Amino acid sequence: MSRASIHLVRHGEVFNPDGVLYGRLPEFHLSDLGQEMARRVAAYFQEQQNSGAKLVQVVASPLTRAQETAAPIAAALGLEIVTDERILEAENRFEGLSGVKSRLRNPKYWPLLRNPIKPSWGEPYAAQVQRVMAAVEDARIRALELGGEDSEAVLVSHQLPIWVTRLAAEGRRLWHDPRNRECTLTSVTTLDFDGGQLTGVRYAEPSADLLPGAANIPGA
Q1: Could you tell me which SMART domains the record lists for this protein (predicted)?
Q2: Which CATH class is domain 3-210?
Q3: Which of 72, 83, 121, 163 has the fewest C-beta atoms lying within 10 Å of its C-beta?
C-alpha cells in the first residue's frame, strides 16, 4: 500500500469592509491580516518540509483569495501552483449580498430556505463533496507519482467545501449549523490515506493567535 496525505487549507482573511457574501465573485483579495495568515501557514508547511515531510504539490482554487493564500506556500516549498476548479467555493444564491442574516427576515428570500438539508439556497452538499474528493484523489495519485511513499499535497480551498468533505470523511451528516464549522481561516484539514483507503482526519490551526478580531464572513 502507498501512504499519502492531502492537506485542505482554507484561505486567509479577505478584505471585505462591506460584509458581502462574496462566494465566487472575482477580485476579493486578502486583507493585510489575511496575507500574514498566508505567510503563517506557509511557514507551517516549510517547517514540516524541513523536518522531512515530502510536500510535492500545491493546488489552489482559481479564486483570488485562494491563489493569494497558495502563493507563499508554493514559494516556501519551491513549487508551482496548480489551479483546480473542483475545489472552488460553493455556489450560493445569496452571493453578492451584504447583511444576509437581516435579509432572511424578508419573505421574498424564504423560498430559498425551504430545504436546509440540501441546501436549497445553493450547491448541494453532496455535490461539493463529490467534486472535492475527486480533486483529492487526483492529488493523492499525483503526489505518489512525484514523491513516492508518504508524499503530501496542499490544496487551498474554501470553508464550506472543506467542511462538508471532512464531515463525509468522518461519516457524519452533511447538513449542519454554519456557526459550528471547525474550519477557521488558514486552518489545515488533513486527510491521510493508505492506498485508496482513508485512514484518518487531522486538523490544525497555524494562525490561531491571529483569529481573534478577524472578519470571518463565510463565502457560502
Answers
A1: PGAM
A2: alpha beta
A3: 83
| Domain residue ranges of the chain, discontinuous segments joined by + | 3-210
pLDDT band at 220 (very low <50, low <70, confident <90, very high): low
SS3 17: coil
The label of the residue with cell 458581502 reads: 20
Write out the DSSP string of 41-71. Answer: HHHHHHHHHHTT-EEEEEEE-SSHHHHHHHH
Residues 6+ apart with CB under 8 A from 150: 3, 4, 5, 54
Across 31-60, average pLDDT: 98
Helix (H, G, I), strand (E, B) or coil at 160: helix
Mean pLDDT over residues 176-180, rounded?
91
Instruction: Report d(CA 127, CA 93) in Å as an integer.
Output: 16
Neighbours of 121 (CB within 10 A): 20
Average pLDDT of the segment spanning 178-201: 96
pLDDT tens digit sequence for 7-19: 999 999 999 999 9
DSSP run (H or E) holding 117: none
State the pLDDT at residue 163: 98
